[in-house]
Amino acid sequence: MEIIFVRHGEAMHQLDGGNGLCAHDPPLTDKGRRAAIRLSRLEPLGESDALVAGPVLYLLQTADLWARGTGCSRFVHPLAGPRQHPFRYDFRTPPCQRPMELERIAGRFPEFLLPAHLPEHLWLQGIHTLPGILFAQQAERFLTWCRGLEKSRVFIVTAESTLQAYRAHVSASSSGGRAGAGRGNRLSRWTVPLPV
């Protein structure tokens, strides 16, 4: 089994420097949409695959465009990010990275399933500002959930900072810093770069 983290396509909040962080629900740019569609040709998905996206519009749009017309399982999961990295103790999530409400996700992305038995606060707040020890616990929970899908490949569409946070977590786990994800269960790839 492979767990593969994939960066989302270019989104509107990335074009406006620091001001872009204040945008609510920024969508993909035309370039980001084209890249996500191109990804479906470069990394085709099938029934033996699962695709997981964080509950943010540009993450879901990337996953949705990539998965169209495939038989892959699709999920939205708050532990797929976004997450800041390196962590700062400001405990503020910028508007562009706040999770969408579940009702809006269900309305716009009805093909995406929700995982069962998650605390409501994860859907409301996400993992952007979770302190390190809490993130480590949730990261283990998420990686275990991904393995439990029993798919040959699980692709996680997320932001670069989330990818880096999971990479740091797995590195610490496999070096003996914490028990868990890394021992015997290394993630075989970290990113599939989106085509330009």
From TrEMBL:
A Pfam match is His_Phos_1
Output the InterPro entries linked to this UniProt entry: His_Pase_superF_clade-1
Classify the source by domain of life: Bacteria
The protein's name is Histidine phosphatase family protein
- Give the organism the record lists: Paenibacillus solanacearum
